[in-house]
Specification:
The complex is a heterodimer of chains A (145) and B (259). With 145 residues, chain A is of the alpha+beta class. Chain A has one domain: Alpha-Beta Plaits, CATH 3.30.70.20. Chain A is built from 4 helices and 8 strands; from the N terminus they run βαββαββαββαβ. In chain A, the strands form 4 sheets. In chain A, strands 1-8 form a two-stranded antiparallel ribbon. In chain A, a hairpin with a 4-residue loop joins strand 6 and strand 7. Chain B is of the alpha+beta class. Chain B has helices at 19-25, 82-98, 103-111, 133-140, 173-177, 214-224, 235-258, and strands at 2-6, 9-13, 49-53, 62-65, 76-78, 147-149, 156-158, 185-188, 191-194, 197-203, 210-213. In chain B, helix 2 packs antiparallel against helix 3. The radius of gyration of chain B is 25 Å and the shape is extended. Chains A and B meet through helix 2 and helix 3 of A and helix 5, helix 6 and helix 7 of B. The complex binds iron/sulfur cluster (4 copies) and FE2/S2 (inorganic) cluster. One iron/sulfur cluster binds at residues 53-56, 59-61, 79, 96, 98, 100-101, 112 of chain A.
Chain lengths: 145, 259
């Protein structure tokens, strides 16, 4: 799993196709799920920022889960949430510092990004390549403080 | 790996893997009311009963709960033999006497041709099927706030001495995992009530929305090393913070490039 999301907010036009793709990719019994990706403004008037789970190295969601329902998928690298195990205590939702574990009221499930099993629908459908999922060599870019 | 036969099909399974998991993987529907992925099997409801035998057993057969029986080499399993169906039906007859109004039980019983119990209905029937999922989940999470008490007709789930349980943190896992929604709770504003206790929910400083109870948050920070401040911001506000950080980085890097 050397692929990562590459997000370029400056290219995002706010069309929310990624959100729609996510909903449909996670449909259950013909019902779309709640999107696990969010197009937000981030306090900027002229910017759209697609936000989703960072699949953290030391993930707070997994640490907070007392029944170990959240574990790393060795193939995709995603922190996967096992719906059969989840007892909906909402700990992970409260613990994730990025708000990327959430509750789907329609499906009555706690959900988070699962990288669609290794081929994220959101990135595939983004028309402007503001959101890509591709192999990258990670080179840190640190803003001057 | 071992290989065994289930309903005439040869299948492979991990050594020691429970039969119920193998049966489910094959898409075979076996009722299993006390089974929950978050906890160890319990063998309480006995509905997952299957018939087992082996070539070498000279026609001898045994009946075991699939949720507790490990897959073995050369085992021959029948999940729906005449005798198994008969056993399951009589168990459901008993369930119907205890839970006559419970949709989950009514549905399963109807699938086995039962609409009424042949036994006498218990004096005060309720929706608790005594699966023990709630108590085991609470134990698994490390609280052990509730347990199964009494025997026979009076058997029920209850906090110690039937008083507000001191070890409960109000996480609601018991109520959420209960297959019949028997465990009642109430969330009004930032107050949560369950098992006769009242909890205060932490509130997001930005959105004013409740997150989890103070007690649950304290437990998680103490035992799972999560900063308590995390619990005072809800998911929506946390996402906004992330978007704002990413936005600022974007503005900064675009600026640098055009310099
Ligand atoms: S849900 Fe949150 S804590 Fe868990 S991996 Fe994703 S970003 Fe990290
Ligand atoms: S809501 Fe589910 S996945 Fe999240 S911490 Fe609770 S049991 Fe684990
Ligand atoms: S709400 Fe209380 S009794 Fe129920 S699982 Fe949580 S700690 Fe246990
Ligand atoms: S209260 Fe619910 S989970 Fe607990 S034993 Fe009864 S039916 Fe099972
Ligand atoms: S699921 Fe096996 S005994 Fe209840």
């Amino acid at each position: 799993m050397n692929s990562r999301f590459v997000v370029k907010p400056e290219l995002c036009i706010g069309c929310r196709t990624c959100e729609l793709a996510c909903s449909f990719a996670h449909a259950k019994n013909g019902r779309p799920g709640r999107s696990r990706i969010f197009v937000l403004g981030g306090g900027f008037k002229d910017l759209f920022v697609p936000v989703t789970c960072l699949q953290c190295e030391e993930a707070a969601c997994a640490k907070s889960c007392l029944v170990n329902a959240i574990t790393r998928n060795p193939e995709t690298g995603a922190m996967d949430l096992d719906h059969d195990k989840c007892v909906r205590c909402m700990a992970c939702i409260a613990a994730c510092p990025f708000g990327c574990s959430l509750f789907d009221e329609q499906q009555e499930l706690v959900i988070k990004c699962d990288l669609c099993g290794g081929d994220p629908a959101c990135a595939k459908f983004c028309p402007t390549k503001a959101l890509e999922y591709k192999p990258v060599t990670v080179r840190a870019l640190r803003p001057a403080i | 790996m071992v290989s065994l036969t289930i309903n005439g099909k040869v299948v492979r399974a991990e050594e020691g893997e429970y039969l119920l998991a193998v049966i489910r993987r094959m898409g075979i529907d076996v009722p299993a009311l006390c089974d929950h992925a978050a906890v160890e099997p319990y063998g309480g409801c006995r509905l997952c009963m299957v018939e087992i035998t082996k070539e070498s057993w000279d026609g001898w057969k045994n009946y075991v709960t699939a949720c507790l029986y490990p897959a073995e080499q050369d085992l021959i399993v029948n999940t729906h033999s005449e005798k198994v169906i008969e056993l399951r039906t009589s168990l459901l007859d008993l369930f119907l006497a205890r839970n006559p109004e419970t949709p989950l039980i009514q549905k399963l019983a109807a699938d086995h041709g039962l609409t009424k119990t042949s036994f006498e209905v218990v004096p005060e029937p309720n929706d608790c099927i005594l699966c023990g999922i709630c108590t085991r989940v609470c134990d698994e999470m490390g609280f052990a706030a509730i347990s199964m008490v009494n025997r026979g007709h009076g058997r029920e789930v209850a906090p110690p001495l039937n008083e507000a349980p001191p070890d409960c943190v109000g996480c609601l896992a018991c109520a959420q995992a209960c297959p019949t929604n028997y465990i009642k709770f109430e969330d009004i504003g930032t107050t949560r009530k369950i098992w006769g206790r009242e909890f205060e929910l932490l509130t997001c400083e930005k959105t004013g929305r409740p997150t989890i109870t103070r007690e649950f948050a304290a437990f998680l920070s103490k035992h799972r090393d999560i900063p308590e401040e995390y619990f005072k911001v809800n998911d929506e506000a946390h996402r906004d913070e992330l978007a704002s950080t990413m936005g600022r980085i974007t503005r900064w890097s675009v600026q640098e490039e055009t310099k």
